Every structure is written in C-alpha cells, then in structure tokens.
Amino acid sequence: MQNQASLQETKQHGAVRFPFNLYPCTIPGDFPQVALHWQESMELVFVKRGTGLVQVGAESCPARMGDIFIFTPGTLHALRQAEGQCMEYENIIFELELLGGAEDLCAEKYLLPLQSGRLSLPARLTPNDLCYLQAAACLREVEDANRAKLPGYELQVKGALLRFLALLLAQGRQRLAAETADTQRLKTLLQWLSAHYTEELRVADAAGVCSFSASHFMRWFRQMTGQSFVAFLNEYRLNAAAEALQATDETVLTIASRCGFENLSYFNRAFKAHFGTTPREYRKK
Fold this sequence. Notes:
GO molecular function, one term: sequence-specific DNA binding
Pfam family, one: HTH_18
CATH topology of the largest domain: Jelly Rolls
Shape: globular
Number of domains: 2
Order of helices and strands: EEEEEEEEHEHHHHHHHHH
Distance between the termini: 13 Å
CATH class of the largest domain: Mainly Beta
CATH architecture of the largest domain: Sandwich
Domain HTH araC/xylS-type: 187-285
Organism: Faecalibacterium taiwanense
Strand content: 15-25%
Number of helices: 10
Helix content: 40-55%
Protein name: AraC family transcriptional regulator
CATH superfamily of the largest domain: Regulatory protein AraC
C-alpha cells in the first residue's frame, strides 16, 4: 500500500537497480482513497473490477473495469471510491531510468522529456481506444512476469513497458506538457500542508499560502480538488493517523494528538466514519 500521508511520494519502489513494483489494490478494501499527490516515477493504474473515481490535475472522471490510467512524473492525481462501489486495480510503479540510461537515443528523445514534463502521454486508455488491446496485453505480460519471476523476468518487464510506451507515443496523442499556475500553486499548498497538518490550521492560513482571500481560496480549492479545504485536511489527518497506527506502537491518544486531533472522542468517531472501523480494530488488521 502506498504512503498516503506524503503528498509528494518519495517511497522507493522495487530495488535500487531495478526500480519497479506492482501492487494489487482495492478501494475501499485496502484504503478508502489514495489522496491527491504526485511523484517523480511513472505510475500506471489498470482497473480490474468495479468502478471508482480518478482525479488527474483538476479534472475527475469515472474509472471503469478495463481502463488504464497513466500518470507521468509530476502529475497530480488521486483515486477515490465511487459511492457504494468497489474498485480493484493493479498499481504499476517504475522509474523511467529503468527503461534507458545516459547516451541512449530513446532516453534522449522520449524518457528524459517525459521525466522533465516536456512531453506528456494520454492520461487514460479505455477499451474503445485503437491501441487498447495491445497496450493491455503489455500490462498483462508485466503482471505475469512479475508473478512468476522466472530467470530473465526483468527483461520481460522492461520490454513490455517499453512496448507499452511505444504504443502510446504511436497514437500521436502526446503533446508538449505545461504545468499551469494553478497546479503549481496547488503543489506548493500541498507541500505546506504536509509540513503543518499537525498544527491548528485555519482556512485563512491556507489562503495566505496561495495569496488568495479566504472566500476566493475556498472556491478555488473546491474547483481544483472536488472537496472543501476542511474536508481535505480532515481526510489527510485521518490517513496519517491510520498509517501511524500500523507503523508504530504509540497510543491512539498520542497518534490522534500528533495528527492534529485535540479531541479523542471526535477522532474516534471521524476515524470510524472514514474507515468503517475503530482505530484499535484498524491496528489489528
């Protein structure tokens, strides 16, 4: 499961010399959502069953069985539960350097521009897209090779991921990527939130980070994330608390206080409403 308490994810996926990993995930079975974040690696989400919601930048769309989402380095994204629904998906995360290094023509033309944001890919493939069957077959090959781990499986994984990227590039839907002022501002705010979520925060404090009035900030934040700032902050703190419950032996009271909750009774109620279980029961999972 990914570290949901970090808005810029820095977790090492796979081995240093083979930076690749695959995670089977379920929303809400494993967690109710993957909060808005970004990372410097490539991330693919292959929806296996059910439906959910995916946010890319400021845009949200339904995620349905068979859909493939492509998050290039630096792309803000989030995954959420659709009301009353469950979504199972494979999360494939790898560093672009896995596919080509220095003095490599492919790295120069494609991988480095993808890494730096000078080149982007379509954020979503559906079964209706022309290259879908071939692209999905590449990801299934990655899954099978990773599961079996036969001698040479690393070459299979690398080859299938290269073919997957080649298929996307061949569609001609890539474009020069340009991060907007709004997404840059949102990343700055999320970094600030990551550093200060344990403190008593007001809407005015967050608005000041963005140089907005409180009223303009509240409208802007909802437009960018689909949530109010207060609801987003509360979910962020709850996710941080859930991670601490599984990673430390600290008391529930200590964790609640450290994550910005001054009232233990309120924390317990909010936690159960969010995760469907009490903090103590969650710790035993």
